[in-house]
Amino acid sequence: MSVLLETSAGDIVIDLLVDYAPKLCENFLKLCKIKYYNFSPVYNVQKNFSFQTGDPIGPGAPGSDDGSSIWGVLNGPSKRTFVVDIHPKLKHAERGTVSMATIVSPRDPDERLAGSQFIITLGDDLDYLDGKAAIFGKVVEGFDALEKINDAFCDDKHKPMVDIRIKHTVILDDPYDDPPGLVEPPESPVPTPAQLATVRIGEDDKLDEEGDAEATEKARREREARAQALTLEMVGDLPFAEVKPPENVLFVCKLNPVTTDEDLELIFSRFGKILSCEVIRDKRTGDSLQYAFIEYEDQASCEQAYFKMQGVLIDDHRIHVDFSQSVSKLSDTWRTATNSKRRHGSGGFGGVSGLEKRRQYKVEGGERRDKYGMVYDEEELRRRHERDEKHREDEKRDRSRSRSPQRDRDYGSRDDRRGGRGDRGRASGSGRDRFDDRDRDRDRRGRRDDNYRRR
């Protein structure tokens, strides 16, 4: 005798212990049969201990009667509870033990009463429940659902923040006859207004941090791309993380190895003026790598070529065309500008002023056909040219100097070394005078040596 509970956390199959708790099993089976438990909430979850359900609305909610037995449903509120027999051999020894929640009878302290609420244990050896809850079954399938319920986030009253509910009940085997007046509904009833009023966060509700799989994957890829771009900016490969590829450059691939730059430019030039067309080749062998970059003067020509040339046959090869995603030339322009500024003794890691504009510029008049880069302020560009010109003039003056003043002070002028000719040599002491002084010193040392030998 088994019952399948379809819950929002997963399916749970319960085997009923009809030999040990026949009345408890009959009550549970018949309540399942009339769909009494449908949309009932799990309203008390204590981690690694147990969870409780079985009240269609939930205890304490407006309109709740804490649940009713099958006989109370059929015969009125006077039969809402019934006296249970707790079998002494049944213990809450293992996870997945199913038992009816009971209360002490007001008429007899030794009696315990049950209605519709039941408990499923989430841990082993819970002897605290022995004698307080009446065991009538055990879970045989659906322990993954028990794990999900066990991990549910709950408030301070142990109620899950996101609703966990019994969606449907299916009786797999029923050995009991139906009591008088029991009518099985032809289909699952819709939730009542009182039940709908107890919904907190529905299982189908999307939380802010959640979304559909496609949106979540897109957000993940965007975060990853931003992180990678920031890394490239930090190591100096990109001028800034938000740099975007140019919109006037096409990427063409699947080319025939024999296709040349001139052939490709001739074919694509019918859509507009081309600033550069380059088939990428192996540096060592010079062989074509079968892809190319084509830069147009304006974006409209680039877009037209993209739509018209997709899948066109060139040299027996059907090409593939896409918009370029490369920013390598932008990075080259930035690095060149940065290195130039460093050579002039100013600037730093941040690059030249004006890169924060984060836009591409268009080459005017066909100049610099092999490059495209970033926008600069005209004023900044003028200042750069003035600094470059001043730097070149300084270098020219340095080269025009024929000698160093320090060298002249140490060794004398060219005229001095040639024998004392010239005003500079005569004024400061010529090289010839120095030679005469050395000769006199040698003569004095020689006379001293002779006098020493005579003694």
TrEMBL record:
Residues 381-455 are annotated as: Disordered. Residues 6-171 form the PPIase cyclophilin-type domain. Its EC number is 5.2.1.8. It is an enzyme of class 5 (isomerase). Residues 381-398, 405-455 have a biased composition (Basic and acidic residues). Gene3D superfamilies: 3.30.70.330, Cyclophilin-like. Residues 248-326 form the RRM domain. One of its GO terms (cellular component) is nucleus. GO terms for molecular function: peptidyl-prolyl cis-trans isomerase activity; RNA binding. It catalyses: [protein]-peptidylproline (omega=180) = [protein]-peptidylproline (omega=0). One of its GO terms (biological process) is regulation of transcription by RNA polymerase II. Its main location: nucleus. PPIases accelerate the folding of proteins. It catalyzes the cis-trans isomerization of proline imidic peptide bonds in oligopeptides. Belongs to the cyclophilin-type PPIase family. PPIL4 subfamily. This is Peptidyl-prolyl cis-trans isomerase. It comes from Mollisia scopiformis (Conifer needle endophyte fungus).
